[in-house]
Amino acid sequence: MMISLALLLFPLFHATSQEEIVQIVNNVKGGLWKAKVYNKTEFDVEAAMMHMDSTILSEEPVFSSPLQSTPEVFDARERWPEFQVPIQMQAACNGCWAFATTASMTYRLGVAGCYKGLISPQDLLSCDKTNKACQGGNPLRAMLFAANNGIASDDCVPFVSEFGRVPLCPSKCKNGSAIERYKYKTPFQVGVSDVQTLLMESGPLYARFNVYADFLNYEDGIYEHVTGRQLGSHAVLLLGWGVEKGVDYWLLQNSYSEEWGEKGYFRMRRGSNQCGMENAFYGGIVDCNAL
C-alpha cells in the first residue's frame, strides 16, 4: 500500500488554525492538493466545523477487485449534462445528508428516463422525521423515506433552511399548487467493488466520509488528510473518478457553494479508503412506472 508523504511528514501534529493548516498542507513536498484560508464571505470554516454528523466511518483498507472494463476517467456531468445538479449551499444547516440524497435522486430519475428537475433537499429536511433535519441524518433512512413517501421538486419546495430553521412539512407547493412527490423503488448501499459500474449504468450516488479540519481549507487538487483533528462526517455526491499524474481519485460534488474548492467540487484520493469513503456509498433504484 502506498503511504502518503504527507502522513510520513506529519503523522501526529494537528494544526488548529486555518493559517497553520494552510501552511502545513502547502509546504508538503510532493503534496497532492493545495489549501487556502477562506474568509467568511467565501466559506465560513468555523460554521462548517459546527455542522458535522457524529457518525465516524472505519478507515481500514477495503478490498476492491480490479474492474478490467472500467474506463480510466468518468464524469457524470459530461455523460448526462442535461441532468446536472447545480452547486448548492447548505450554510448553517447540517443537512448534507439531504443534499446528497436529492442530488443523487435528481440524476438517477433522469438516467432512468423520468427526469423531474432538481429534487428538493428542503422537502426531505422538513418531512423526513426519521432523521434530524439540520442536525444530521442517516443515508439509508433518507433513501427509505424517499422510497416510502417520495420527495417533491425544488421548484415546488425551495431551500429556506440556510440559517438552520426548518419549517413544517409542506402540504402545498410554494406557488399554492398541489405537491407531487417522486419515489425510489428500492434503497441500497453499494460496495466499492461495484460502485463504478453502478454509477456508469444508473447515475451518481450518495457518498459519505470522515472530515478532518484540513478538508475545510481545500482549494484544489486530490485531497488526502494531512493535518487537523477529526470533526465528524459529511455527505456529498459521487460523480465519477479519474487519474492525475498516476494518482487515482474520486470526483465529488459538495454543498459548500461555488466559492469553496474547485468551484464547489473536489477530488479525493481513491483506492486507500481515504477518510472512510470507500465504506459508504448509497443510492436508490428508480422505477419510472411506479412514480
From TrEMBL:
Keywords: Hydrolase, Signal. GO terms for molecular function: hydrolase activity. InterPro entries: Papain-like_cys_pep_sf, Pept_his_AS, Peptidase_C1A, Peptidase_C1A_C. SUPFAM superfamilies: Cysteine proteinases (SSF54001). It comes from the Eukaryota. Its EC number is 3.4.22.-. Gene3D superfamilies: Cysteine proteinases. It is an enzyme of class 3 (hydrolase). Pfam families: Peptidase_C1. Residues 70-285 form the Peptidase C1A papain C-terminal domain. Residues 1-18 form the signal peptide. Belongs to the peptidase C1 family. This is Gut-specific cysteine proteinase. It comes from Blattamonas nauphoetae.
